[in-house]
Every structure is written in C-alpha cells, then in structure tokens.
DNA sequence: ATGAGGGCATAAGCTGTCTTTATGAGCGGT
DNA sequence: ACCGCTCATAAAGACAGCTTATGCCCTCAT
C-alpha cells in the first residue's frame, strides 16, 4: 500500500526495469558454469571489472545476493542458484527467438529453404532450428510462413525445399509424412462458466455457442468446421492465434485453439481447458515436399529432427 | 562464409546483440495488441518518437520489417507476427523470473511466507506466483528454498506459512496433501549409445552403470537410491540440478533427473530419454504445513492454485 | 618466508543508446 | 477546410555499461 509499491504494481509493465537484461543473464549463467567472475568475463569477451560491476548491479536490482565471492572464485548462493535457473528459461527462449529470427532474414545463399504454416512456425520450428544448429552448425536456413496454399505454391515453384502443413488435407502435387499429432481444444478464461464445467461439451452445444475463432481458411478453422459440419458460429473472427488467445484470456468468451498454442497459458492458469466429447478435433502435422523429390541433404537432416 | 558471418557464429554467445532487449519486446507486444505505435508508447509510459525509433532499430537489428505503418495505425507484417509470438515466450519467461525474484527478497511484511524444495521452487513456483498475482494482486509472498529438513524446520518455528517437499517421506510434525506427481527419468546426450536404445533398461543395468547424480541427501537421490536399493553408482556427484543437466548435455554420461527439470532439453533434443522398466521412479510432490494448522488466507489461496 | 598468480573491488573517463522535446507531414471524418 | 489521429525526423540531454589502471587478498610453490 506504500506509494512506491502502489506505483510498481500499477505500472504493471515495466518488466524490463525489474528483470536484468539478456547480457546480464548470460553473464550470470557463465559465472554459474565457470565458478569465476573473471572467467565468465573472458568467455563473453568483456573485462573482469565489467563483469564484477554488472553482477553487482543485478544484485542491487533484485535485492538478493547472487554469488559468494572468495579470493579463489565465486559460487552461487542458494538464491543465486534459483535465480540462475529462472534466468536460464529466459535465455533459452531468447535462443529460440534468435534461431527463428535468423531464418526470417531473406538470404539468397540459404542452403535450406523452409516454408511452414503459422502454428508450426510459431511453436515448433524454433526448437528444430536450434537442434539443427547444434548438429549442423553451418546450415543456413531461411523460413517463410504462410497457409497451406502458400506452402504448396512455394514448394512447386522451387522457392522452398521443405514445407510443413497442419490442415486436414495434403495439397495436391506434394508427398508428405506425419511428424506429429495435434488437438484443438476449447479454452476459456478462469472466470467463465465453462471453466468450472465437469461434464464434457457435446458437439451440438459447441456448435450453438458463439466462439472466438481464427478466420475462415486457417488450418485451425478448417478442422473445427469439418468436425462440426461447417456449423461453427463465430463470436468474433481474428486473424492470428495470438489475437484469439488474447481475447480468450481477457474473458471475451470461449475459444478453440491448438493445444500447442496454449501450453503456457494453461500452465499459468490464464486459460482453462473445457472438456469436449464426441467431436474429433485431432489433426496431423505433416512435412511435405514435391511429389518424387524426396528430401536430401539439409532438408533430410531437418526432417529427421522432427520425428516425435 | 563471409568474414562477418564467420564472426557472428564463432562468437556464439553474444545473444544479447542479436535479440532485442526486454523493453523492446514488451513494446512490440504492446504494438501488436493495440495496433498503434503511439498507443503502445502511452501504455508503456514513453513518448511516441521513442517507440517509433525503438521499433525501427529492432527491425534494423533483425533485418526484417515487423510492422506496416499507415496513417491510421500499424499492423504486424507476417514476419512480425511470428517474431511477436517468439518474443512473447521470452517475456513470459521474464514474468516468471520477476515473480520469483520478488518473492526472494526478504521482506518482513510478507503476508505469505513459503519454503520449498529446490525442484519445486525452480520449476513450479514461479507459475503459481504469477497465477496468485493475477488472482490476488496484493498478496506479498516471500520464498525460501531448501531441502526437506529445512522446510520442516522453518514451518515448525513459524518462519513460514506453507511448504512444499518432493521427498519420499513427509517430515514428522507436518500434515500434507499431494499436489502433483513427478517421475525421475534417465537421460543422455543424443550421441550416447543409450540414446538409440529401444529395449528398456533393467534395474540391475541401471545400478551397475556409473551415473551423473545429485548429491546424497537430495530429494532426487533419495528416490533413486530407494528404487535401486541403495545401489546407485555415481560417475560424479553434483550439487544442483543445473550442473547435472549441463554434464549430461555435454555428454559426460547418463543422468537421472526429474522430468520437470528436463522438459525443455527433451523438446530441443539436447537430451534424450532412455526407457526404463521394472524400477519405480515415481514420487509425489506435496504441500506441507504444521500438523493441525490447516492453511488459511493467502496460504489457502496458493494451495488451491497448485491442484493439478 | 616470500614471490608469483589468480581472483575480486574500486575509481575515472569515454562511448553509445535511449530518451524527451519540438516539429512536420499524411490521411480521414466532420 | 479543418481537426484529430497517425507516424517520422532532428537535436540535445541523461544514463548505463565498458575499458583502463590500480590495489588488496588469498593460496601455492619455491
């Protein structure tokens, strides 16, 4: 209730003022791994005083001692070990971001050109790219995102070497292999009536209720319409998974989304899964390529990483 | 193969030079949500030119156009939508970090004092704290991490209101309720012989092989020793889950860890799960409190969030 | 004992980034 | 035609982080 506390929570955002920047977190991880400030500094290509000062400023910012300094090295405190583990999650997310972002740059010299549907590009590809980078560090990948039609088009016009789609059907002219299974699920904000519901929803009830949906033509919408016999009733139609999630979290109504998209939200209880019965909302995720042109080289490397 | 490219990948670290900082990512999320640079700027408490310049510098850094500007607002480009979703993962990890870090500060006025074992504090508590903050924004939580004995000690001396343990036994003097189930799993680096193994490991084989383990006395080690009859043979003993994971990832040998701890690593294929048969490596995660003092108020709120 | 080496802290100066203030320009509805 | 919204540009100030240059502490080997 103090003025400061009030403002801190009222501002709400300002995360970047309470969380050390990525450079600081990387430094902390290096200190944890190497057991020495100077060693960590060397690894990151900065000087020892810079590392010392930076760790100290993180400790000031967090209000917690992170490392025990001694004349023969530095070890994490108990709190420091916790903070370091939480920091690792941020850095891993940043690594995935980096792998994805590098692939988004249009480069003519890419040895592997991938085109993928949105959901796959958002939730699965960064991980695959990281794994690929670990195994084949010199493979330059470029990524283009689009719907199933776009994927087919770019593959057939030789603008891409490997594609990923999430629809019900495989575009003609393409061979495919199933690489994972996905389910659409119904979710609501925790405050919604359905959030407390134990008895599964029936198809009729789902079809009769206005839902927050992706636009017609999206892979997600295709599957839902097919499952309900083309009857899905939109409360609003939004053009991205993100917008649908945001609307559902804010309590606008129930939404239908891939379980890939809402893992985090379910874990944090920002959204609640509503049980459904008698409706087939499963779909396959597939890798695709032009008929007959079985993937070779880098494309084959990536494909082998996607096996679940 | 160019000089610049060479250096970028050779440095390897330097993540913070290729990924925008948290402030920039938050700004991008706000732009995506509000559809306007100026609106996002207002929400974050900065001026419109600052937002404009910052978004522009992110686009320069990533080499990709993120937003389509128009005289009546800004919308994300396709690439921008992808980048924004990847950015959201980073920001969510940062929110968990923040929730945890705030709880680590020692504050006398905390209305809820929690003491938890390491694994739970590392992997589950931040999410619970975020959910608690969402539902009860004014609950100040403080967190202390330690082993089972520490948890019991602090609860019984009234230094904590609610505890979480992961061992096989409940310390005497405490009541408990099971809040989740956990399994220890055997993992190796992808290059290890066991990584390609299909036939499950037997207890005898596991007991005969030197493993990367937590130190004796840790919850993880207790469960493993019990399951193998006290026979676990350490290749090395390390004092943190983190260190065990790092050793396993680097290929030092097979490790035994909670599946909570290696979710990310398995998804990114940095580690591979080795099937095991005939060994009971399950354990319960429990909330605990002094016998008779059933949790009330904030403690009860938190407890109700942990139900799986 | 004593000197060498590794480890950390402090001080001073520099540089770059991000910010604000001030202003201009495009588009749309009234 | 004007007002309101949007975004862009330019100039100047504030701040954070880095480097260089030291000094102290501890340990180990000579």
Describe the overall structure:
2 copies of one chain form a homodimer. The first copy, chain A, has 308 residues and is an alpha/beta fold. Chain A folds into 3 domains: 3-96, Orthogonal Bundle (Arc Repressor Mutant, subunit A); 108-174 and 293-307, 3-Layer(aba) Sandwich (D-Maltodextrin-Binding Protein, domain 2); 180-284, D-Maltodextrin-Binding Protein, domain 2 (3-Layer(aba) Sandwich). Chain A is 45% helix and 20% strand. Chain A contains 14 helices and 11 strands. In chain A, strands 3, 4, 5, 6, 9, 10 and 11 form a 7-stranded mixed β-sheet that branches. In chain A, strands 1-2 form a two-stranded antiparallel ribbon. In chain A, strands 7-8 form a two-stranded parallel sheet. In chain A, strand 7, helix 11 (219-228) and strand 8 (234-238) form a beta-alpha-beta unit. Residues 1-12 of chain A have low confidence and may be disordered. Chains A and B meet through helix 2, helix 3, helix 6, helix 7 and helix 8 of A and helix 2, helix 3, helix 6, helix 7 and helix 8 of B. Chain A binds a DNA duplex (30 and 30 nucleotides) through helix 4 and helix 5.
